[in-house]
Design goal:
single chain, ten-stranded mixed beta sheet, 6 helices, about 325 residues, two-stranded antiparallel ribbon, alpha+beta
């Protein structure tokens, strides 16, 4: 399917700044009507053959440039329970990166140039949200040590405590990305998402963005969620045991019981920047604006900066010494 403007027939997209469907041709708002077909391989707009890949749920047609949603991948078993629609549009995401990297003097000039940013895209990443009940049990021997002096003597008094804790905790909506392509560590750094923006799923939110279905079933990703729950349970438990000088652990175990699992889509801006033969990946949380990625250091800018600040050379740029001395002699 695709979303067509009732006024002018143009392809409508979800506009984050307006939180509405928007027609870039006649500027109509929420004037969409669902059109097209439910084929996985035919563009809903122009009829050209498109490649839905294994996991795509929405895409941009390479021929007509219109955005389409693959019906079969947003219905039935693939219908998300919820979605956090994009809050930041591309300009807002770029502005967030600009602000973040401006302080870092060594970013290459082309870093946020229009040309470099052409390939930046907004993607809905599939997530499973796991709920668990945790039952934790701790038992240990703690000591508290008191020291004081009196007369010619130093005294040490060690008290021994038996420490027992039983804790029941429930964890709701632990997010784990269900995309093989997305790096797990990076996706974890994208957290937290603000769940107060979770909406019932509607395919219109995908128009204008690249969507993916979950790449495998929820049980295949559950280990990561369980680890997050167990780690959080451990932190809570540690917090409840404090004030001891030492602790000998006798029992420390957590049992997790599966509760509900939801399927949700979360928004991420993905920017792949190529510089001097290397790829740098940047991710902007499409809801909160949180940025993950390191700026590449431009050696040229380091040298310019160094000259201005009077520090000609220092470690890390030896490779270029020859060129520079050649110029200056
Ligand atoms: Zn229109
Ligand atoms: Zn097309």
């Amino acid at each position: 399917m695709n979303f067509q403007c009732k006024n002018c027939g143009g392809n409508m997209i979800f506009a984050p700044a307006r939180q509405k469907m928007y027609c870039p041709y006649c500027e109509g708002e929420d004037t969409e009507t669902v059109a097209g077909n439910d084929s996985l391989t035919v563009c809903a707009s122009c009829g050209a053959e498109v490649d839905p890949g294994e996991y795509k749920s929405s895409d941009k047609c390479p021929y007509c440039g219109n955005f389409l949603v693959f019906n079969k991948r947003v219905e039935g078993e693939y219908k998300p329970d919820s979605i956090i629609p994009f809050k930041l549009d591309k300009d807002m995401a770029v502005a967030a990166m600009d602000k973040e990297f401006k302080k870092r003097l060594f970013a290459p000039i082309s870093f946020l140039s229009e040309k470099s940013l052409e390939g930046m895209k907004g993607a809905y990443v599939p997530f499973f949200l796991y709920d668990y009940l945790a039952e934790s049990e701790f038992s240990g021997e703690g000591t508290k040590v008191k020291r004081w002096s009196s007369g010619n003597y130093d005294y040490t008094e060690t008290s021994y405590y038996s420490v027992e804790r039983v804790m029941h905790a429930s964890f709701d909506n632990i997010p784990v990305d269900a995309s093989f392509e997305m790096d797990d560590y990076t996706m974890d750094l994208m957290e937290p998402y603000d769940y107060s923006d979770l909406m019932s799923f509607d395919p219109k939110y995908l128009s204008g963005f690249f969507g993916e279905i979950y790449n495998d079933t929820a049980d295949k990703f559950a280990d990561r969620a369980k680890k997050k729950a167990a780690d959080s349970a451990e932190i809570l438990m540690k917090k409840s045991i404090s004030g001891y000088n030492s602790m000998k652990t006798l029992v420390d175990k957590t049992t997790l019981t599966d509760q509900k699992i939801d399927y949700a889509l979360f928004p991420v801006w993905i920017y792949k920047y190529h510089f001097r033969g290397k790829d740098y990946n940047y991710y902007v949380n499409g809801q909160t604006g949180k940025i993950i990625g390191k700026t590449p250091v431009s050696v040229l800018k380091v040298i310019i900066y160094s000259i201005f600040s009077g520090l000609l050379f220092y470690g890390g740029i030896e490779g270029l010494l020859g060129i520079i001395t050649g110029v200056f002699r």
